[in-house]
Design a protein that fits this description.
This protein is α/β, with parallel strands linked by helices. It folds into 4 domains: 76 residues, no CATH class; 185 residues, Leucine-rich repeat, LRR (right-handed beta-alpha superhelix) (Alpha-Beta Horseshoe), CATH 3.80.10; 110 residues, Phosphorylase Kinase, domain 1 (2-Layer Sandwich), CATH 3.30.200.20; 232 residues, Orthogonal Bundle (Transferase(Phosphotransferase), domain 1). Helices cover 27% and strands 17% of the residues. The chain has 15 helices and 27 strands. A 7-stranded antiparallel sheet has the order 20-19-24-25-23-22-21, sandwiched between helices. A hairpin with a 5-residue loop joins strand 5 and strand 6. The longest helix is centred in the middle third of the chain and has 43 residues. Keywords: Leucine-rich repeat, Membrane, Repeat, Signal, Transmembrane, Transmembrane helix. It is found in: Membrane. This is Protein kinase domain-containing protein. GO terms for molecular function: ATP binding; protein kinase activity.
Length: 666
C-alpha cells in the first residue's frame, strides 16, 4: 500500500525541547504528536521532517499483531500509519456505522465515514483507540450525547472494545441477553441514567473481565443474578434507583449500601430486611450515602499518609524477617504447580531447602508486589521465588490468574514457571536472571563495578520497549503492566532485558476500590507514576508509557527517579522535574551520565533523551504508544545489530482462543 502524502504542518516545542507536530488549518486531530527524524547539528531532531535513514521498522497488522517491515524507512513506516480511513480495521468501522445508525437519530455524534477524509475513526467524538492510527477501538465514551433507541447495534464488531459508557442518554428496552457475546472483553460497562428495562441478564456474569458495572437510574426489574459472583475482578457495582427486588447476592455485599437503593431489595450491605418500611429504608440509604462520602474523604487522607510514611518500614521488616516462612513449614508436602514440562516436579519442601527457609541472605529484590528470593537447586542451577505481598484472592481466583500468566511467553518477559499455595502464602516460581535488576546495575553502590556501557543501555532500552509493546499491542485483550520501573526489568547473562511482575497488579488489591488501587502502590513506585493517576486513579496504556519514559531517563542520566544527585542541594523535585528544568534553560546535555560523554555516542544519547521526554509529557494524549517508542528506539540502535533474532522478530497475532488471555485494566 502506498504511503500517505506527508502534509507540512507547523511544529511546537514541548518542555523537553522536543519538536511535536501541530495542526494545520482544517486538519483533523487524528494523530497528534507523530514523530519523524530531522537531521540537525549534533544529531537528529524529532520533528515533522522526514528522515532519510533506512531502518527495519514495525507496522501494525490487521489482525492486531505487530510484524516487521524489513527494509522500510522509519519515516515511511510512520507515514503508513497516517493513512486515511480506508486503512482502518473494517470490522471496527462497521461497528461504529451500525451503532450510529441505531441510536444517533439526531446526528449528535457528527461521525462521517468518508474515505477521502484525513484521519480515522480514532478521531471521532467519544472514540478511543488502542493505537491512534490502528483503528481498533479500545473505549467508547458516549455519555450525554442524546442517544435514543435500544441497546446499540454492531458492538460485536468492535472486537477489542474494553470500555463502554452510554450513560445519561435516552436509551430504553432490555439489556441484551447475549451481552457477553457482544462484549466479550469488556472491563467497564456504564449504562447508568437511561431508561433500560427488564431484568439484569444472567449472561453478564460471562463477561469475565468486568471491573465495573454501573446500572443505576434505570427501570430494571427482577432480582440481581447470583451468577455475578463469578466476576472475580469486579470492584465497582451500582444498581441504585431501579425497581429491583429480592435478596442481594452475598458476593456483592462488599459494595456500599447506597449502590443498592431499591425499595424492594434486602440483605447486606443494607441494614434492613425485606419487611422494612419504605421510610426507614430511605433513611438508611441516604445516611449511608452521606456518611460514606465523608468517610471516603477521610480515608483518602489517612491511607495516603500511611502508605507514604509506613510502606518503606513495612518492606524493610519483610526483608529482615522470615517469620512467615516458619508458619508454612507444616505444608512442606504441598506440590508446586509447574507450567513447563522441562522443569522438574517440585514440592514446597524443595523450595524451602533451596532458599534455606527463605532467609534474608537469599533475598535478591523487593518491590511493590513482594520479595524475590534466589533458590539454589541440588544440581547447582537457580530459580527465583517471589513471595507475593498482601494478596487477598481466593485459591480459585489465584489459580485462574496464574494459569493465564503462565501461558504468556515472549523473549523480553520473565517466564512464570510455576506457583505454590501454602496456607495464606502465595509463591511464584520464575526463571532466574543472573545479572539482577536494571536498577541495581544503574544505581549499585559497589565502586568496583564499572558503569554500564552505552551500547548495553541502548540494548536494554530496545528490548524492554519490545516486551512492553508486545503486552500492549499483541495480546487480545492487551495487558497493562501498571508497575514499570527499573526494578522490574531484569537482565540475563547477555544483558537481554526481561520484564517481570506483569499481570500481578490484579493480585495486590486488598481493598476493592479504585482508590486503594492507587494508594496501595499498584500503579508503581514513586517517581514512575503518571501525573493523571492522582485524579483519575485509572490505569491506561499511556500510564505505562510514562513509567517507561522515566526508565529511559534513568538509562541516559543514571539518576534515580526521586533523587537527583547531580542537582543543587535546594532542588527537591523528581528526575522528570530536573529534566524539565534543564530543558527550559537549554542545558539538557548536563543531565547525561558523564561516563557516557565524549565516546562517539552523543547523537544517540540526545535522541534517547528526547524520546524519553516525549514519553513523560504531562498530557497522556501527547505521549506516543509503546508501539511507536519501540520503533524509534530500534531505529536509534540499528547499527549495533544486537541480536540476529531481531531480524526475525514477529509479534504474536491475536490468539484463536481469546479466553486464554488476560487484560489488566480498570
Amino acid at each position: 500500500m502506498a504511503s500517505a502524502t506527508m502534509v507540512p504542518v507547523p511544529v511546537r516545542l514541548d518542555a523537553c525541547g522536543l519538536l511535536l507536530l501541530g495542526l494545520a488549518s482544517g486538519q483533523r486531530a487524528a494523530a497528534p504528536g507523530r514523530l519523524a527524524a530531522e537531521r540537525g547539528r549534533g544529531g537528529h531532531r524529532w520533528g515533522a521532517g522526514a528522515g532519510q535513514r533506512r531502518a527495519g521498522g514495525v507496522r501494525p497488522r490487521d489482525d492486531g499483531g505487530v510484524t516487521e517491515s524489513r527494509g522500510k524507512g522509519r519515516a515511511a513506516v510512520l507515514s503508513d500509519k497516517l493513512n486515511p480511513l480506508s486503512y482502518g480495521t473494517v470490522t471496527d468501522i462497521q461497528c461504529l456505522k451500525k451503532l450510529k445508525a441505531s441510536v444517533d437519530l439526531d446526528n449528535k455524534l457528527e461521525w462521517t465515514f468518508n474515505n477521502n477524509t484525513e484521519g480515522s475513526i480514532c478521531g471521532f467524538n467519544g472514540v478511543e483507540c488502542w493505537h491512534p492510527n490502528e483503528n481498533r477501538v479500545l473505549s467508547l465514551h458516549l455519555g450525554s450525547f442524546g442517544l435514543k433507541g435500544q441497546f446499540p447495534d454492531g458492538l460485536e464488531n468492535c472486537s477489542s472494545l474494553t470500555s463502554l459508557d452510554l450513560s445519561s442518554n435516552s436509551l430504553s428496552g432490555p439489556i441484551p441477553a447475549d451481552i457477553s457475546k457482544r462484549l466479550p472483553f469488556i472491563t467497564n460497562l456504564d449504562l447508568s441514567y437511561n431508561n433500560f428495562s427488564g431484568e439484569i441478564p444472567e449472561a453478564l456474569a460471562n463477561c469475565s473481565y468486568l471491573n465495573a458495572i454501573s446500572l443505576q437510574h434505570n427501570k430494571l426489574t427482577g432480582t440481581i443474578p447470583g451468577q455475578l459472583a463469578a466476576l472475580s475482578r469486579l470492584d465497582q457495582f451500582n444498581v441504585a434507583d431501579n425497581q429491583l427486588s429480592g435478596q442481594i447476592p452475598s458476593s456483592l455485599s462488599k459494595f456500599p449500601a447506597s449502590n443498592f437503593a431499591n425499595q424492594d431489595l434486602c440483605g447486606r450491605p443494607l441494614s434492613n430486611d425485606c419487611t422494612a418500611t419504605s421510610s426507614s429504608r430511605t433513611g438508611v440509604i441516604v445516611g449511608s450515602a452521606v456518611g460514606g462520602a465523608v468517610i471516603t474523604l477521610i480515608m483518602v487522607a489517612v491511607i495516603l499518609f500511611i502508605v507514604l510514611r509506613k510502606m518503606p518500614a513495612k518492606k524493610l521488616k519483610d526483608v529482615e524477617e522470615n517469620k512467615w516462612a516458619k508458619t508454612i513449614k507444616g505444608s512442606k508436602g504441598v506440590k508446586v504447580s509447574m507450567f513447563e514440562k522441562s522443569v522438574s516436579k517440585m514440592k514446597l519442601n524443595d523450595l524451602m531447602k533451596a532458599t534455606d527457609d527463605f532467609t534474608k541472605d537469599n533475598i535478591i529484590g523487593t518491590g511493590r508486589s513482594g520479595t524475590m528470593y534466589r533458590a539454589t537447586l541440588p544440581d547447582g542451577s537457580f530459580l527465583a521465588i517471589k513471595r507475593l505481598q498482601d494478596t487477598q484472592h481466593s485459591e480459585d481466583q489465584f489459580t485462574s490468574e496464574m494459569s493465564t500468566l503462565g501461558s504468556v511467553r515472549q523473549r523480553n518477559l520473565v517466564p512464570l514457571l510455576g506457583y505454590c499455595i501454602a496456607k495464606n502464602e502465595r509463591l511464584l516460581v520464575y526463571k532466574y536472571m543472573p545479572k539482577g535488576s536494571l536498577y541495581d546495575n544503574l544505581h549499585q553502590q559497589n565502586s568496583d563495578k564499572k558503569a554500564l556501557e552505552w551500547s548495553l543501555r541502548l540494548k536494554i532500552a530496545i528490548g524492554s520497549a519490545r516486551g512492553l509493546a508486545w503486552l500492549h499491542h499483541s495480546c487480545n485483550p492487551r495487558i497493562l503492566h501498571r508497575n514499570i520501573s527499573s526494578k522490574c526489568i531484569l537482565l540475563d547473562d547477555d544483558y537481554e532485558p526481561k520484564i517481570s511482575d506483569f499481570g500481578l497488579a490484579r493480585l495486590m488489591n486488598p481493598i476493592d476500590t479504585h482508590l486503594s488501587t492507587f494508594v496501595n502502590g499498584e500503579f508503581g513506585d514513586l517517581g514512575y507514576v503518571a501525573p493523571e493517576y492522582t485524579h483519575t486513579l485509572v490505569a491506561t496504556p499511556k500510564g505505562d508509557v510514562y513509567s517507561f519514559g522515566v526508565v529511559l531517563l534513568e538509562l541516559v542520566t543514571r539518576e534515580e527517579p526521586t533523587h537527583v544527585s547531580n542537582a543543587p542541594e535546594n532542588f527537591k523535585g523528581s528526575l522528570v522535574d530536573w529534566i524539565t528544568y534543564l530543558s527550559n534553560n537549554s542545558i539538557l546535555q548536563d543531565a547525561v551520565d558523564k561516563s557516557l560523554i565524549g565516546k562517539g555516542n552523543d547523537a544517540e544519547l540526545l535522541q534517547c533523551m528526547k524520546i524519553a521526554c516525549f514519553c513523560v509529557l504531562s498530557s497522556p494524549k501527547e505521549r506516543p504508544t509503546m508501539f511507536e517508542v519501540y520503533q524509534l528506539l530500534r531505529a536509534v540502535g540499528e547499527k549495533y545489530h544486537f541480536s540476529a533474532a531481531d531480524d526475525e522478530l514477529t509479534m504474536q497475532p491475536q490468539n484463536a482462543n481469546p479466553e486464554d488471555e488476560l487484560i489488566v485494566a480498570n
